[in-house]
Amino acid sequence: xxxxxxxxxxxxxxxxxxxxxxxxxxxxxxxxxxxxxxxxxxxxxxxxxxxxxxxxxxxxxxxxxxxxxxxxxxxxxxxxxxxxxxxxxxxxxxxxxxxxxxxxxxxxxxxxxxxxxxxxxxxxxxxxxxxxxxxxxxxxxxxxxxxxxxxxxxxxxxxxxxxxxxxxxxxxxxxxxxxxxxxxxxxxxxxxxxxxxxxxxxxxxxxxxxxxxxxxxxxxxxxxxxxxxxxxxxxxxxx
Length: 239
Fold this sequence. Notes:
12 helices
C-alpha cells in the first residue's frame, strides 16, 4: 500500500514513523519542493476550511479580540465592528499567509542555520553541507506542521476556539489565564517542540555531531522567543 503513495507523502509519513532514516535518505538526495507543496496544501486547506465554518468565524473573531487585549489594547465598538467585517476574508488571508509566508520563513531559517553552521565548521570544510541539504532538513522537519493542522482543526471546532489546540497551556491548565506562567505555556506549541527536535536531528546528521548538542542551541533560541512573547503580553496585558 505504501509503495502506491506519492514519494512526497511517503516521506511525510516517514518523518513520523522513522525520522532519522528518512532524514538521512533525504539529505543524501536533497529535494524539497514536492514535500513542501504537500505540507502547504494540507495546512492551508485545514486552516481555511475551519475558518469557512460558522464556528471558525466566531472563533477567529474571538481570537482577534483576545490577542488585542493580551497586548493591553482596548477593543471598543468601532474596533470590534472593524474586526467583524474582516472575518469573511480570514480563510483567504490564512491560506495566503501559509502558502506565501511559510516558504519565506522556511528559506530564512534555512539560510540562517546554514550560515551559522558553516561558520561553526569553518576549520572543517569537508563537514560543510550545501544550502540545499539544510533546506531539505527544514522542509522535512516541517512535515509535523501538516500533522498539526490535521490534529488542530477538529480540536478547534470542538472547543469553538482558534489557536492553542496543541499548546502546553491547553494540556497543563494549572495557572490563571492572565498570569506569566500561563502565557509562557500558551506560547510553547508541542508540535513546534517536535519540529525543533527533528531539525536538530537533521543538522546533527549534516554536521556529524550529536543531536543533543544541536538541540540545546535550538531549544535555547525557541525558549527565549517564547519567554519574550509571554513577558510582553503579561506586561502589556497586566500580570
